Amino acid sequence: PEVRRFFLEVGTYWIREADIDGWRLDVADEVDFTFWQEFRRAVQSVKPEALLLGETWKDAGDMLRGDQMDSVMNYLFRSSMVGFFAKSESAKRFDAQIQRLQRMYAQPAQQVLYNLIGSHDTERFLTLCGADERKLMLAAAFQMTYTGMPAIYYGDEIGMTGGNDPDCRKAMDWNHINADLLAFYRRITALRATEPALRLGSFSTVHADEQSYGFLRHFGAETVYAIFNRSSETVRLQIP
User: Fold this and answer.
1) Can you give the pTM of this predicted structure?
2) What is the pLDDT of residues 86-126, one digit of tens each?
3) Is there a catalytic annotation at residue 62?
4) pLDDT in tens, 153-196
5) In the annotation, is 26 catalytic?
6) Which residue out of 21, 26, 165, 222 is catalytically annotated?
7) Alpha carbon of residue 64 to chain centroid
8) Which of 29, 55, 70, 95 does the annotation list as catalytic?
9) Helices (H), 19-167
């Protein structure tokens, strides 16, 4: 009980004194769920809109029932992204994984899942792609058009590489900025910011074969199609 009280005080102190926007909670799935229920009540008593983001590498349905976390680090999403964009798994397999992710959580949780392709605990995505910037661009474009909350790991947007921890945690390389890659990230993040369907719309797969994959997002009167071609060849499609 003393330890619980201490951490509840820590959780509310920084909300009150520093007005932080929320907490990212390390290895959240290894802490008793009753503590997170207490933690949520305590934090929300100070700031009702504070965000609680839990780290997990697995199905997080037990943490996303409305009484613990608002969102989780979506490592299952990352695994699927690595398979299709970096490791050349088929688009049909990728679609099966995406459909599973779409069914895994309730829609309010889907809208705010922390969708990452790299972190302080993983190899850099560009390294996994064999330094192929085009594959990284495709993955980033998917992040910015897919359901949820896309997260950019610092340095990916300028072309940083690195193996597993600690190599992925190198300092930001301000002296070697890939200007073309950075310009692409700016364009694709701006696109998401200006298209309500990409932030709030429904999701439906419209195409999947070996090398290409497509979906649509629909919101209000707006429909946006996102089509991805992983191959080096031109692909002609007829999308319904």
Assistant:
1) 0.94
2) 998 999 999 999 999 999 999 899 999 999 999 999 999 99
3) no
4) 999 999 999 999 999 999 999 999 999 999 999 999 999 999 99
5) yes
6) 26
7) 16
8) 55
9) 33-46, 75-81, 91-104, 107-110, 125-128, 133-145
